[in-house]
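Design job #97: recover the sequence.
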């Protein structure tokens, strides 16, 4: 797995990982780590987003954005 955050690159993390030669299985594993890593704070993140009207009023879209 990649040892540094890739979010600062202007292309998607997946594309960058592909360019770096990672296999699909390695990319899926890396994405899976995000779910595990966010688990302890997911309730707090949800509460924080729901406190903002534009997110709260479009909650289904927020969830879809998070799953992307």
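Job complete. Output follows.
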């Amino acid at each position: 797995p990649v040892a540094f955050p890739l979010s600062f690159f202007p292309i998607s993390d997946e594309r960058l990982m592909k360019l770096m030669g990672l296999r699909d299985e390695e990319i899926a594993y890396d994405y899976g780590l995000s779910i595990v890593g966010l688990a302890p704070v997911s309730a707090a993140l949800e509460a924080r987003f729901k406190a903002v009207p534009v997110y709260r009023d479009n909650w289904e879209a927020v969830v879809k954005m998070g799953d992307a």
